[in-house]
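User: Could you check the structure of this?
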Amino acid sequence: MRILEVCTSQSLGGLELYFVTCCQQLSTLGNEVHGMARSDSPIWQKLNMKSLPVVSTTGNKIKSLVRILSFLRKNHPDIVHTHDKKDLLIIALCKVLSPVKFQHVHTRQMNMPRAKKGLYHRFIYSKINLFITITERLKQQVLEKVGLPEKKVKCLYYGVPAPEPKKQNPFENPGKSPFKVGVVARIDRKKQQHLAIEAVSLLREKKIFIDLFLVGSVSHPDYEASLKKQISSLELSDQVFMTGFLDQPQTIMPHFDVIVLTTAEETFGLVLAEAMRMGVAVIGANGGGVPEIIDHEKTGLLFEPGDSQGLAIAIEKLVTDKPLMAQIAINGKHKADKLFNIEHHFTALEATFRELNTD
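Assistant: Sure, the predicted structure tokens are below.
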């Protein structure tokens, strides 16, 4: 198949990295894949570093439209796959203006809280042949908020890589407790790491001591400052450690007893799937797509969003019941290896493209 992957975002988050992985994985499967990105974006650099075919575009909408139309005319892709909602209008216009016929697939990775049924949205969504969501919850949102027929919306869970050998333990020196908890997420108010710090304090009042590691780069310096103030005011500097950014965090997850996701409304919760594939027990907030990953007390534990006491109770349950923690880790790995496998994900994505292309 000839596939054009399109992402003109200038950011470098999960959406953009997934776009780069799509280019790489679909090409590995034997397809003719071109990535289209802005030449001043980080993902342009990543595509070039991986020696993947890349077509440049710009921030000028008219110039971008002309370049995509030219690419369509010369290369006749079977599939155009978009990732950023900002690219939907240009591809919809290409559907109207280009004599080259193609199937437009869009993958949505963020929640859709509001209805999208105005004239503009009706136009751009009417030109999509298949809308892919990363959770069943998000699929239901799309069906309700956009109004697409069910046959045009498909859920395809993210895939994460197979476990790699553990890196050398970067946490040998800090901390005194043998029980270590990790929160792997950028330092951002939406990620709600303060709940984990509160849970450590609540557990200490019960004479249960754990070490907490906040692993991630800083997105909001003001929130980082508030976390440091919280750690100091609760006198937890000997139990809570902010490590900053760590490369390939999945490979260090086995050095933790538990990985916790404190975000109230995570669309998917990729870090949980990564930890589960590494054979680590997980705890997550009962919101967003997390309940599709965690089956409570089977593949992990759930606590109510925003409830630090509930989080403390969940951690305590694993601290005091090691057989339960071990069984949760085993069950979680089994589920993740089956449902959140990166090879299975891209094989299914390619099969979806082929089926759509033969309709």
